[in-house]
Design a protein that fits this description.
mainly beta, disordered N terminus, 4% helix, 3 helices
């Protein structure tokens, strides 16, 4: 396991057995996962039992699970809300990289963590405020809302985002704050390079990496443009599309490097890297059952991060409708609701063979309503299998309440599923179910 952040000097030793951390400074120490197997994860919630064998199946054996409730998170004020909003990355070194932020404005920061599957340890490797030399008392970067992406030189790329959006307009131009900034991290040294605001005074809430072309694509808000940045040339290639784009949270690309997104006319449009322009396909997401034209639920919300071996793309709408997209024929095929009647889901991944899709529905706190299932979808048959219902088991073992995920990755060999969940302390007597404030890392061993 590599040491704690070398981009920022830490005064704290890295005690391998550290499970609970008392201070923010000690958060540089490693946390060790609790590993368990429990048949209780195969127990179907009462409200869903009639659907077993019809809408979904349940796995025969429980997976081995690693669990870490991220510790050492400092609550700076009553507005602090530690949470995870961007997808992670399984890097070439075999480690899983994930991010969280405190959701603040003034004195805000976000962290990047490294999970080593060999030692089953989690280490904080980046503190954004420290890495960029942010001064106390100024508006900062309360989220990493983009994905973490790896280039072929091994570098990891991600962008920041604001926490308190109502304060951001007043912050622009003060103390050097220009909105979202692009950061590059060397996973070997954990040193961070501040590339700067590639679209000044805008936020970058979502990204998509096209590694074959070394492109990093973003949505920018508030203008709602598509941003295409060349990671090799270190320059912005494209900025535009606000008159076309609907939604600003998901993209997908095909084998030619064309980057697809939902248009205001409900059709899938794409950025063509050959011509550096936006073009429309003939495929309309509004053709899916239950979709309504101009309904915000029609927009693309989750998609696999690269095409399957046969060139197909798989995605979901914001309403939880699963579909297949053939970029050659420019057709969409409805695959039904992702779970129950369709649930808001932010991330999904395909296994290396193109046989399965994996996802966990209920991104923004609604996972608890259906037991926080982790689902394997078999593409050839349409069979949905719940690998684990995590909610009750985490209540019992860790007094922890899951709140859904925006971060789900599969190891290249398809044997480990990494998930960063939002969550909070579980209190059955509480008037309100809390689903944010204490993120966690869950790893399902699929072999």
């Amino acid at each position: 396991m590599k040491s704690a952040s070398r981009g920022v000097v830490s005064k704290w030793p890295m005690w391998l057995g550290c499970l609970l951390l008392a201070t923010a400074g000690a958060a540089h120490a490693q946390q060790v996962a609790v590993t368990f197997e429990d048949k209780a994860v195969l127990t179907v919630p009462v409200d869903l039992r009639e659907q077993v064998g019809k809408a979904f199946d349940v796995a025969d054996t429980p997976p081995t699970i690693d669990f870490i409730r991220i510790a050492g998170l400092l609550n700076k004020s009553k507005d602090t809300l530690w949470s995870s909003w961007g997808d992670g990355c399984v890097a070439a070194d075999g480690c899983y990289y994930t991010s969280i932020g405190d959701h603040l404005g003034v004195d805000a920061t976000a962290y990047v963590y490294e999970y080593n599957p060999k030692t089953r340890t989690l280490t904080r490797v980046v503190d954004v405020a420290e890495a960029i030399g942010q001064k106390p008392g100024v508006y900062g970067h309360g989220k990493i809302h983009s994905a973490i992406s790896q280039e072929d030189d091994g570098s990891l790329w991600f962008s920041t985002y604001w926490g308190k959006h109502r304060e951001v307009d007043a912050a622009f131009g003060k103390n050097g704050y220009e909105g979202s900034i692009l950061l590059r991290m060397d996973p070997a040294t954990h040193k961070v390079e501040n590339v700067g605001a590639i679209v000044p005074r805008q936020g970058l809430p979502a990204s998509h990496h096209v590694p074959e072309r070394h492109l990093l694509c973003f949505y920018s808000v508030y203008e709602n443009n598509l941003v295409v940045y060349d990671l090799k040339q270190r320059k912005r290639l494209f900025l535009g599309g606000a008159d076309v784009i609907a939604g600003n949270r998901e993209m997908m690309h095909d084998k030619r490097g064309r980057v697809y997104f939902t248009g205001q006319d409900n059709r899938l449009h794409y950025y063509d890297p050959e011509t550096n322009t936006i073009k429309a396909t003939k495929a309309s997401v509004a053709d899916l059952p239950t979709a309504a034209a101009r309904d915000k639920s029609v927009v693309l919300r989750a998609a696999i991060n690269k095409p399957t071996p046969d060139g197909m793309l798989y995605a979901m709408t914001a309403s939880g409708r699963l579909f297949a997209f053939d970029p050659e024929a420019e057709t969409v095929k409805d695959l039904g609701p992702n779970f129950a009647n369709g649930m808001y889901t932010a991330v999904m991944v395909a296994d290396p063979t193109g046989k399965y899709l994996y996802y966990t529905p209920g991104a923004h706190g609604s996972a608890v309503k259906v037991g926080a299932p982790v689902i394997r979808y078999e593409i050839a048959t349409g069979k949905k299998t719940v690998l684990a219902f995590l909610e009750d088991v985490l209540h019992t073992r860790f007094t922890y309440q899951l709140g859904g995920t925006y971060n789900l990755q599969l190891s290249p060999d398809g044997k480990r599923l990494y998930i960063t969940f939002n969550g909070a302390a579980y209190d059955p007597s509480a008037a309100k179910v809390l689903t944010f404030g204490e993120p966690s890392v869950v790893v399902l061993h699929l072999d």
